[in-house]
Amino acid sequence: MSDDFLIAGQTLKPNSRTLIEVPLPPLYTHAPMKMPVHVIRGKKDGPKLFVSAAIHGDELNGTEIIRRLLKLPVMKRMRGTLLAVPIVNVYGVINHSRYLPDRRDLNRSFPGSDKGSLAARLAHLFMKEIVSNCSHGIDLHTGAIHRSNLPQIRANLDDDETSMLAQSFGVPVLINANLRDGSLREAAAEYGIPMLLYEAGEALRFHEVSIRAGVKGITNVMRALNMLPVVKSRRRKKLEPFVARSSSWVRASASGLFRKVNGLGARVKRGEVLGLIDDPFGGEEMEVVSTVNGIIIGCTEIPLVHEGEALFHIARFEDVKVVAGHVETFQTRYSPEDEVNISSDFEPPIV
Ligand SMILES: [Zn+2]
């Protein structure tokens, strides 16, 4: 690969590994701020992939996914260029917050502008230094605060290349998500860059299954893009992904203390009891009942609920039974208890 790669005013040669620190507006305490970007360039030319995490500053699984990804020995054999940004919203991470200090959501502020709000400026910088330098992207998210998501890929599955990458990631649930106004995905689509959004786990927590599946998913996509060598399959069967037909939320019918009966990945039927809400003053116990047949792909983790709050996110599929089987296999495969299933791609779990 002969091309030099220019980022944040630095020129990077092929066969190199560099940590770039992109300068950001400083804190009002005079503390300088930087966005770290790891750039790995292979010997040979190939796609330019960005992997970003913590665009929402309290969503940390992706930061750990990137840390593990960068340590994989197979990265030495990579072709093309990987731009890994473990923390995009540095301000939010400092504050344990989804938002920026100006209370804006970065993922509603793309493509941004260099004259706009703090969020708009950070979005603009990310577009200029990262997205415009890349041919593909993966953005890593978790559920919001006190909410967990079953590992899932959200992407524009109507686009052939995006759909191929989504299928290759290796999680059982794919959601054909419409582009949201101001999201990174929408801005990347404007640049013609196929992009996946990986949603897994909960804000402010590390979730081992989500992290392992994320590391594996990114290397699967890199193999599909020919950035990593394809491994001769000594492994078990690849898990087939399923596209959800639609999804809906089941909400609290009353305020009170909430206990879950069913959790993430459970197959539920319409009319089935998903949880119970009890009044702390000893009032009547209310049942939370599923309104659809499907799989729980998101749920609340806090036992305090107000009437109308979203408690369960349920996805519908053509064949719910088959999907439920795959979800179970998936969860077992990436579970820390199942040590025999840890491939050489993974570091030992953190104890
Ligand atoms: Zn997010």
Q: Assembly state here? A: single chain
The helix content, as a percent range, equals 10-25%
Bound molecules: zinc ion
Largest sheet: 13 strands, mixed
Tell me the number of helical segments per DSSP (H or I, 4 or more residues long): 7
Give the strand tally.
Answer: 19
Overall body shape: globular
Could you say which structural class the secondary elements and strand pairing correspond to?
alpha+beta
Keyword list:
351 residues, alpha+beta, four-stranded antiparallel beta sheet, 7 helices, globular, binds zinc ion
Describe this structure in words.
It is a single chain. This protein is an alpha+beta fold and 351 residues long. The protein is 22% helix and 29% strand. The chain has seven helices and 19 strands. It has helices spanning 61-71, 90-94, 118-129, 160-169, 184-190, 208-224, 320-333; strands at residues 5-7, 10-12, 16-24, 33-41, 48-53, 81-85, 136-141, 147-155, 173-176, 195-202, 242-243, 246-251, 256-260, 267-268, 273-278, 286-289, 294-300, 304-305, 310-316. The strands form three sheets. Strands 3, 4, 5, 6, 7, 8, 9, 10, 11, 12, 14, 17 and 19 form a 13-stranded mixed beta sheet that branches. Strand 1 (5-7) and strand 2 form a beta hairpin. Helix 1 (61-71) packs across helix 6 (208-224) and helix 4 crosses helix 6. The longest helix has 17 residues, at 208-224. The two termini are 41 Å apart. 43% of the residues are buried. Mean pLDDT is 92; it is low at 340-351. Residues 56, 59, 141 line the site of zinc ion. Zinc ion is lined by residues 56, 59, 141.
